[in-house]
Amino acid sequence: MDFITSFKICGSGLAAQRAKMDVITSNLANVNTTRTDEGGPYKKKNIAFEASEIENHFDATIKDAVKSVEIAGISEDPNPIKMVYDPSHPDADDKGYVAMPNINVISEMVDMITVSRAYEACVTVFDATKNMALKTLDMGN
Length: 141
Description:
Number of helices: 3
Distance between the termini: 23 Å
Number of strands: 4
Shape: elongated
Strand content: 15-25%
Largest sheet: 2 strands, antiparallel
Order of helices and strands: HEHEEEH
Oligomer: single chain
Structural class: alpha+beta
């Protein structure tokens, strides 16, 4: 495998983790949003990834093992919205309940830490690959 392929794999991982962090950030920013353009509260977003073939000339042994990552899509979480009793809220219904987003802040923070660690891992691999390439160039001198 050449160094460029390693850089492409690392780059796809970095882009995927950055996109996931953007989704988490959006969820956390809208944790108290009770009105949207679509009507009702903000609905939590989820991001899905999928493995992607790498265009290169690998032999059959490594071709199935080496993949990059792509974003398969962003979807709304199917879990129901939360109904919170707050009769003083401007969006409260006639019984005093407010429809709130279906976002668990603790779960989002755990996801944020996981994404941060995965991003750091991709950076570490990128840096190691870069150092290997530089060492290879030094061997020629």
